[in-house]
Write a structure and sequence with these properties.
The chain is α/β, with parallel strands linked by helices and about 350 residues long. Strands 1-4-3-2-5-6-7 form a 7-stranded mixed β-sheet, sandwiched between helices. α2 runs antiparallel to α11, α6 packs parallel to α9 and α8 runs antiparallel to α9. The protein is globular and about 60 Å long. The two termini are about 15 Å apart.
Length: about 350
C-alpha cells in the first residue's frame, strides 16, 4: 500500500459553518467512477487512462464541487483508490486543478503485486481497501472530539466496485460487530492474501470500537437499482447525482446551506442539469427514506439571501427551490428501520468482491 499525506487546510475565509462544524468529521473517497469518470472494461481503456493528461481526466458531474464544499466545511478528506501508484502525479495534478484539498491519498501498489506474482490483488478490492481503511482510522490524530465522542465518518464509493460491501464491513468491524475469526473467514472467502488478512486483523484490534461510520454514499455509476443495496441497511445511501449526496450531508448537518446551492450551481452551469429535475431528485431520496425535508427551509432561505445580489444560474436554482418547497408539505419523516447484523460470510460469495473493480 502506498500513500502520501498532505496537511489539510481549514475552511475557506468567509464560509459559514454547518451545524456541528466545530466537531471533527472525516470523509473517505474512492476515485474511479466515484470521482473520476474512468473506464477499465478493455485494455484500450486502461492504456488511455494511463496516458491521459490531468486536464483530460473527466470528473463525475458535481463530485469536485462537493469535495470542495467538504473542504470548506473543515472536513478531513482521505482518498483511497484502486488506481495504480504510477498514476499518483497525474491524479494529484487533477485534484489540484479541481481545487480539491485532501489529507491523504492512498493508491494501489500494482507494480509490487505483479513483481510478487500476486495477480488476484490486481483486481481484488477487499484485501486492499479494508486494511487500508482500518489503518487510516488508526492513524487519525485523535479518534475522539473535545466532547469525548468518537470522530464520525462518511464513506463515498460507487456501484462499479464492491464498495458497499467493503465499507459496510469496515463500519461493522469498527463498531465491534465482526470478531477476528469471522474477519479472517470473510477475507479468505473474498480472495485476500494471508498477509493482508493479518494486517486487517491487526489494525482492527487497534481501532477504538464504536459507531464510527455515519453514512455510506454509493454513486450509481452503472445505474444499478437502489433496491440492490437494501440488504446493507439504512446506513447505505445509493445516489444518482451529487446533489443528492449533498442533500443527505446537509440534513446530517455536515455541510452548510450555501454548499448545497453551490453544488446545484455546478451541476446547472457546468453540466446542463435542469433545476426542477434536481428538485425532484430530493423526492426520490425521500421516497427511499433517506431524507425528511427538515433541511429544505434553510436551503430556501439561503437561496433568497444569495439572489439578493447577482447569482449564477439563479433561475434554475429558483426552479429547484420552488420544487423543494412545493413537495415539503407531502414529505414524511423516514421510517425508522432496525439494523440487522449482516452475514458477510454468505454475502462475500454472492458479491464476490475479488472480481469487481
Amino acid at each position: 500500500m502506498n500513500e502520501r499525506r498532505v496537511v489539510p487546510e481549514g475552511p475557506a475565509p468567509g464560509t459559514s459553518a454547518p451545524r456541528g462544524a466545530s466537531r471533527p468529521f472525516v470523509a473517505r473517497w474512492d476515485l474511479d467512477k466515484t470521482y473520476l469518470r474512468t473506464d477499465f472494461d478493455t485494455v484500450r481503456d486502461l492504456v488511455r487512462t494511463a496516458i491521459e493528461r490531468p486536464d483530460q481526466k473527466r470528473t463525475v458531474p458535481g463530485a469536485a464541487a462537493l469535495l470542495r464544499e467538504l473542504g470548506r466545511a473543515g472536513v478531513e478528506i482521505h482518498i483511497l483508490s484502486g488506481s495504480p501508484e504510477q498514476l499518483r502525479t497525474r491524479i494529484e495534478q487533477k485534484l489540484r486543478l479541481d481545487g480539491a484539498r485532501w489529507a491523504s491519498l492512498t493508491l494501489k501498489p500494482n507494480l509490487q503485486n505483479i513483481l510478487r506474482l500476486r495477480f488476484r490483488a490486481l483486481r481484488g478490492q477487499l484485501g486492499y481497501k479494508l486494511p487500508a481503511l482500518l489503518r487510516r482510522r488508526c492513524e487519525l490524530g485523535s479518534v475522539r472530539d473535545d466532547d469525548g465522542d468518537l470522530v464520525r465518518e462518511v464513506l463515498l464509493g460507487d456501484d462499479a466496485e464492491a464498495d458497499a460491501f467493503v465499507y459496510s464491513l469496515y463500519a461493522d468491524v469498527c463498531e465491534g460487530h465482526v470478531k477476528p475469526d469471522e474477519l479472517v473467514d470473510i477475507m479468505r472467502a473474498g480472495g485476500a492474501y494471508e498477509d493482508t488478512i493479518l494486517d486487517a486483523v491487526r489494525f482492527a484490534g487497534y481501532v477504538e470500537k464504536g459507531p464510527v461510520v455515519e453514512r455510506i454514499l454509493i454513486h450509481l455509476d452503472r445505474q444499478s437499482s437502489p433496491s440492490d443495496f437494501r440488504l446493507y441497511g439504512a446506513r447505505v445511501v445509493p445516489f444518482y447525482n451529487y446533489l443528492q449526496a449533498a442533500f443527505v450531508l446537509h440534513e446530517d448537518g455536515r455541510i452548510p446551506d450555501r454548499a448545497v446551492l453551490r453544488v446545484a450551481q455546478d451541476l446547472v452551469a457546468s453540466h446542463n442539469f435542469d433545476g426542477a429535475a434536481l428538485g425532484r431528485s430530493y423526492l426520490d431520496l425521500s421516497r427511499r427514506g433517506h431524507v425528511s425535508g427538515r433541511g429544505i427551509p434553510a436551503i430556501a432561505e439561503a437561496y433568497r439571501e444569495l439572489t439578493q445580489g447577482r447569482a449564477a444560474s439563479a433561475s434554475e436554482l429558483g426552479a429547484m427551490v420552488q420544487s423543494l418547497e412545493h413537495m415539503l408539505p407531502d414529505l414524511r419523516p423516514p421510517v425508522s428501520r432496525s439494523e440487522k447484523a449482516l452475514d458477510y460470510r454468505a454475502m462475500v460469495a454472492v458479491h464476490n468482491p475479488r472480481t469487481r473493480r
